[in-house]
Amino acid sequence: MGNCEILSSGDKIKLIRKKYGLRQDDIVGEEVTRNLISQIEHNKAKLTRSTAEIIIKNLNEIAKKNDFSIDVTADYLLEDEESQANSILEDYVDNLKNLLVYKEDTFFAELKKAEEFLIHWDIREKKIEIYELAGDYFYIQNDLEKSVLYYEKAFDLLDKTSYSKALLSILRKLSLMYLNSLKYDRCIECCNFALNHFKDMPEDYVKIFMYNSALCYYYMKYYEKALEIIDKLEPLVKNNTSKLIDVLNNKACCFDSLNKLDKAANVYLNVLELLENIDADSSKHLLILSNAIDIYIKLNERSNVVKYFNMLLNKLPNVDQNSLYLSSAYFYLYKAFKYFNNLNEAEEYLIKSLEFSKKNKQYPFQERAISNLADLYISSNNFERLEDINDEAIFLSNINKKPCTSIFYKLLKFFNKNNKPNNIDNILNFLIKFKQ
């Protein structure tokens, strides 16, 4: 970052004189009085363009006589303090954009400098840009809490009464962050605000807000409400195979949760046909095949479980190994192996699901894996592994700032049944301290 000092016109003239060893009399010439220069330098009089041009003309004449050059202009002398602050903040914005993908602390250090500068120069438009970039950075770093914080700061500064690309951009990002951080009420509120206030927004944004809203209703277990939105959304995405697959998957999940398993299976058959028209190595295959396996396990249609289980296993080596769908793929392979009564392989894939979700901070999937591992080890009376599960549940509770209650209840029930007072005390002590 270059010079961040803000100078008045008088300060600039004073510094130029000192740089070249000049007196006030030297730069005034016959057109300007020394008294006026003195007042400008003491910030008691405003520099006009005509005066600035006279000063530059006189400086150039002095430079020519004394065989040196000057690199200042009348525009430089006239640039006011707010314009300088804007230029400095534009440099901060450019630097932050360039540092966005770096994992080191360079972005964070630059952000802190920008925020310190903004304390003295409260320029709203630049604040919004900087806060949005900060939200983007923390999203990339998977720090959802800080990402939400900065997007909310940007949102608070925006004009909410009129349509703007900046406002829609922040609303879209906020809805995604609320969704990912399990703040479903906030996400729905955000989506409804956008959908109700901006009737003429681009259709792509309409689809995004409707889709995020439907997902939230699904996660909140308002399945009929989710289906109501999906029915309106489906015609809007019918010409985009990839988005249609996402919408239909959500629809099938709603039917599944409503125990309308045949309807869910029919939707998945439709989706699997659509999948044939997109990249064979697409990560979406993992999600759809995983969910199809789950439905057919519930329907107890072994032949279909085997069919989609084999398809999923064959897909695994060819997809992006960083795909976030892998935690679900591993989990439903666990369920399939368990369905086939192959408990060793089941445990192996459940552990893979846990490790992957931990690595990628997928907390709901992490809790799901821990809970199912607890069931496995309870059924096999594996006390040693259950102590590990207890540690995993404590670790996750601390990260989420919310206790994994259902897991602890399972462990308490098991340890009580097997007369393990020390284990029970450890869990209760943790829960008591956590509540405090």
Can you characterise this structure?
The chain is mainly α and 436 residues long. Among the domains are: 71 residues, 434 Repressor (Amino-terminal Domain); 114 residues, Serine Threonine Protein Phosphatase 5, Tetratricopeptide repeat (Alpha Horseshoe); 76 residues, no CATH class. Helix content is 75%, strand content 0%. It contains 23 helices and no strands. The radius of gyration is 32 Å and the shape is elongated. It starts with 8 loop residues before the first helix and ends with a helix. The model has no long low-confidence stretch (mean pLDDT 90).
Uncertain segments: none
Order of helices and strands: HHHHHHHHHHHHHHHHHHHHHHH
Total strand segments: 0
Cα(first) to Cα(last) distance is 46 Å
Q: Biggest sheet: strands, sense, closure?
A: none
Could you state the oligomeric state of the chains shown?
single chain
CATH architecture of the domain at 241-354: Alpha Horseshoe
> What would you call the shape?
elongated
Keywords:
single chain; mainly alpha; 434 Repressor (Amino-terminal Domain); about 425 residues; 23 helices
How do the helices and strands line up, and which of them pair or pack?
Elements: H1 9-20, H2 24-28, H3 34-41, H4 49-65, H5 74-78, H6 81-99, H7 106-120, H8 124-140, H9 144-157, H10 165-180, H11 184-197, H12 203-219, H13 223-233, H14 241-257, H15 261-275, H16 284-298, H17 302-315, H18 326-339, H19 343-359, H20 363-379, H21 383-400, H22 405-417, H23 421-435
Helix pairs in contact: 1-3, 6-7, 6-8, 7-8, 8-9, 9-10, 10-11, 10-12, 11-12, 12-13, 12-14, 13-14, 14-15, 14-16, 15-16, 16-17, 16-18, 18-19, 19-20, 20-21, 20-22, 21-23, 22-23
